[in-house]
Amino acid sequence: MNWEALWLTVRLATLVSAILLGLGIPLACWLTYSRWRLKFLAEAVIALPIVLPPTVLGFYVLMALGSRSPLGRWWQSLTGHTLAFTFEGLVIGSILYSLPFAVQPFAAAFSAVDPRLLRASASLGEPPRRTFLRIVLPLSRAGLITGFALSFAHTLGEFGVVLMVGGNIPGVTRTISIDIYDQVQAGNYAGAHQTALLLLIVSFVVLSIVYGLNRRPWTVGPWK
Amino acid sequence: MNPATATDEPGTEPHPLEVRIRRRFVGSARAFDINVHFRAGTGFTILFGASGAGKTTALDCIAGLIDPDEGLIVAEGETLFDSERNLRIPPWKRRIGYVIQDLALFPHLTAIENVGYGLRFMAPNQRRQRSRELLNMFRIEHLSNRRPAQLSGGERQRVALARALATGPRALLLDEPLAALDRPTKGRIIDDLRQWNQEHKVPILYVTHSSEEVFALGEQVIVLDAGRIIAQGRPHEVMRAPRLETVAQLSGFENVFDVTVMGIHEARGTMTCRIGSGPLELETPLVRADIGAKLSLGIRAGDLMLATESPRGLSARNVIPGVIRRVDSRDVIVSAVIGCDGAEFEVHLTLAAREALNLVPEKNVWLVLKTHSCHLMIA
Q1: Which residues constitute the domain of residue B189?
Q2: Per the CB < 8 Å rule, is A130 touching B100?
Q3: Phi and psi, residue B201, nearest 5°
Q4: Model's pTM, two decimal places?
Q5: What is the pLDDT of residues A41-71, one digit of tens each?
Q6: Could you give the domains of chain A?
């Protein structure tokens, strides 16, 4: 077992799903309550990672982070190195990659809250922001846990994006799924199996939690 | 001579709520146009009409949940909405209590937390005390820690009302909040609400499509139809009585009299009607009629009771002394004709009753007639 890769992966997945919790809640809130006509375009963009080959996503993230892009140059002028092939770059790529797995359950949970409760809250003197905190968030608890767990599990097992953005640097960007690939390449099937089984069990446990929390099965795809 | 001192006549008090709204709905299944203008004083004002008449839309506009296309909404002198000045106070700043039919209790909060929801500005112990007072007033203090799912229909209604009243609203909108309740429960809740309003004196707009509720609550009624106000006034002026029957139904009554309306008692929901040229007068249900109107009064023989002594402590409003003129038996029904002051009544009794009371001609009896056994018809 490559403990270094495992620890790196757990760190990455925890960080990414925590950031997605903070980022996904306002985004899902906007998606749920906005009446913007072109909202469907934003929905499509957020859902892209579900259908896009990870290498394609990884390629564009690499382009965006590299020294030829404005973002990459700005980061380089700030820190002296590019984001590509760093842990930070990996975090950014993973956030984009797992975004729909957090935002979609959040948005589904928010829109499942009875709008009459929101109206009742307003007529009791609570402005929308406080209504969101006091009514929508507590009633969406299962959806929030689902989104957190799914983005965690999804980041845990990513491969293509990591390879494109992070490369394969031990202790920096070599995650557990890349480690499995390396072990297979090296003919070490027993080691690969050990690690693969661990990933399988963790994924199963996470999904069991998710389905146990939601009586309605969570489906991959555009939410209503 | 002292000049008459000016008193607060009910007709001259300032109206705490003025509503003038126009709203057009297009694009839905059918185009709908609402255009209403009314004022409401303190106490109950009933918005009456069939579903789809625009009652709920009117309340939504007052609460600020939807905006009229044009209009003016003023509560306690503060303008909440004015299309001309482009003024719109958001719903959470209007201080308008609103209870909808589905109640919309917060499912994740207990009864006491629901009631205290709008009291965020208070210190926690102050808030708890205020919530407790309201739960107490609606007699559900013992249910403080239950969630809505663990409450009965009537209990939920009380929580919803208490929650709306807790914030001290300057007007209260009730959209059929009691429609799903049985009559005794409904009556008790309304009594509690009346009592609350005696202290607070705010306008209460009460939406219903039940004419029975109009007579039970009504001080003022506004009748809506297809988005327009078609009548406005006191219940008996604008409402058809629940039992104003047609001549076609006349055949079902053994006793039919020509009557004249002598007095209207709105507070009691009754009228006094004189039979023929008098002097006998009966207390009947209130219908839409003016003093002096000629109506027909039908009474079923089976709805009349006889007493051999002057009855006391009865709920029936009409107790009339009379003399038995005839007693006939038809099969198992005993038909007695009673002569009272200027009128004769046919009464149906059982054989057992005739024997127990020894009902024979020339015997003095008292005729007992409930107000609601009097059926008024257009003459």
Answers
A1: 13-238
A2: no
A3: 50, 60
A4: 0.71
A5: 999 999 999 999 989 999 998 898 887 888 8
A6: 3-32+41-213 (1.10.3720.10)
